[in-house]
Specification:
The protein contains two helices and eight strands. The chain is of the alpha+beta class and about 170 residues long. The protein has an eight-stranded mixed beta sheet. Strand 1 and strand 2 form a beta hairpin. The longest helix has 22 residues.
Length: about 170
């Protein structure tokens, strides 16, 4: 299973984004700012692919997603949080509505976390690996276009469509 975190907006105090599960929006996200500062000395994690597992968190005393092999970090989790001070490097989940995104705030964070964990527990078997792709909207858009173009090339090779034989869809 692939989760994709798309970083949508960066501010002085946080990076706001969305979390997609197999291409469908699950919730909004908040991370520390990309650049380290006094409150977040490490900043946000690097873009890249990370293996993820569901494990018990001693700190939060519940099962949460844990990212593996994050350069410069240990114990990066995905958990509920409402504002930048609620993370020291983890990915916060919640929901943004309207002006909340501009205020660097997430609402209904605990509900979003519970829904994510429940979804992952119910939709992955014990042998299926889960990965998180942390990206930004520019890279995501390019990769999405490349994926669509690749799909179209495969379709054109495998079957004959009306437009390939000179016919038009609309007359």
């Amino acid at each position: 299973m692939l989760l994709t975190l798309v970083r949508m907006k960066k501010t002085k105090h946080a990076v706001m984004g969305v979390l997609l599960v197999d291409g469908k929006m699950m919730c909004d996200t908040m991370e520390p700012p990309l650049e380290p500062n006094a409150t977040h000395p490490k900043g946000a994690i690097q873009m890249g692919y990370y293996k993820l597992s569901l494990t018990h968190s001693p700190r939060f005393n519940r099962v949460l997603p844990l990212l593996h092999m994050v350069p410069g970090f240990e114990g990066v989790r995905i958990h509920a949080g409402n504002c930048p001070k609620d993370t020291s490097g983890c990915i916060l989940v919640g929901h943004c509505e309207g002006s909340l995104r501009d205020m660097e705030r997430l609402a209904n964070a605990r509900k979003a976390e519970e829904e994510l964990v429940e979804f992952l527990l119910n939709h992955t078997d014990k042998n299926e690996e889960i990965y998180l792709d942390v990206t930004n909207r520019e890279r995501f858009a390019v990769e999405r276009m490349q994926s669509i173009e690749s799909y179209l090339r495969k379709q054109r090779k495998g079957t004959t469509h009306g437009w390939e034989s000179g016919q038009r869809e609309c007359a």
